[in-house]
Design brief:
The chain has about 270 residues and is an all-alpha fold. About 75% of the residues lie in helices and about 0% in strands.
């Protein structure tokens, strides 16, 4: 049992190191990862500053800047995971990977690990720059910030499981879904407005999204000074459900792709 565990850990580590070296050797990639969250923060920071006199409830406690940064965590974690997978498809390397004794779940863990690194590279500079630019520090939220961050990272990974399942089954023709799916849930996630703003039919959908509870929890903390642990637990529970379904979906698609020889045609 120990031998199998060590072998799995070695394969996961080797694949992670491969992705990390690819990232480290390309400074344009690193700049691009940090560029978009920083630009989002700057643009929405000035929007927040503009609306501060007329809409104090929208901008109080740096709310608008904070939710923009936290929302981008979801998108960064998802796109970092999916792009690493897409690079394997673009280079037609999936077949080579699975000629080795690499299991699908080991690939998932490797992609998740590099996704976390890339997400931190993107989000930390933007969060730090928000302090001198606009006097807003998301770090003032303390421990709840870690829970908000981790929940949205899990949501991003859950979306990635469904996207990579579609990619491995239908090929690069479905590549655009990598960019589309995160924004599909944005109107229901109550990022910039409370849940009560939505019409009844949208509210029912929103109640099944972990992101809704994350942003409702952020508003409660920043506006009312109340840490709603119940909301974070609901978000975490939903994330576990969707992540499990996503992983099962990916493994099912992988089995079909391997059966029909699609792994060797993944670049077409």
């Amino acid at each position: 049992m120990t031998v199998h565990s060590d072998s799995s850990l070695n394969r996961i580590s080797a694949l992670f190191i491969r992705y990390f070296y690819l990232l480290r050797s390309s400074w344009p990639r690193i700049i691009e990862i940090a560029y978009w969250p920083t630009m989002q923060m700057v643009v929405w920071g000035f929007v927040s500053k503009h609306f501060a006199p007329s809409s104090p409830e929208l901008t109080a406690g740096g709310l608008l800047i904070s939710v923009v940064l936290i929302w981008d965590t979801l998108f960064r974690s998802h796109i970092s995971y999916t792009l690493a997978f897409l690079e394997e498809m673009w280079s037609r390397n999936l077949g080579n990977l699975f000629v080795a004794p690499l299991r699908p779940w080991e690939l998932i863990l490797s992609l998740s690990s590099i996704s976390m690194i890339r997400t931190l590279i993107g989000m930390v500079p933007a969060a730090l720059l928000a302090i001198p630019f606009f006097g807003v520090s998301v770090f003032d939220m303390g421990m709840p910030l870690a829970f908000f961050f981790f929940n949205l990272v899990l949501t991003g990974w859950a979306i990635s499981q469904f996207v990579t399942a579609i990619l491995i089954r239908y090929g690069l023709g479905a590549e655009s879904l990598s960019w589309v799916l995160p924004f599909l849930i944005a109107p229901f996630s109550c990022i910039y407005y409370p849940l009560s703003t939505l019409p009844e039919w949208m509210r029912r959908i929103a109640e099944f999204l972990p992101t809704t509870y994350v942003f409702e929890g952020m508003r409660a903390l920043l506006l009312d000074g109340v840490w709603r642990k119940d909301l974070l637990l609901q978000a975490f529970g939903l994330n576990l459900v969707y992540l499990t379904i996503g992983v099962v979906t990916f493994l099912f698609s992988f089995r079909i792709a391997r059966k029909h020889g699609l792994l060797l045609q993944s670049g077409e």
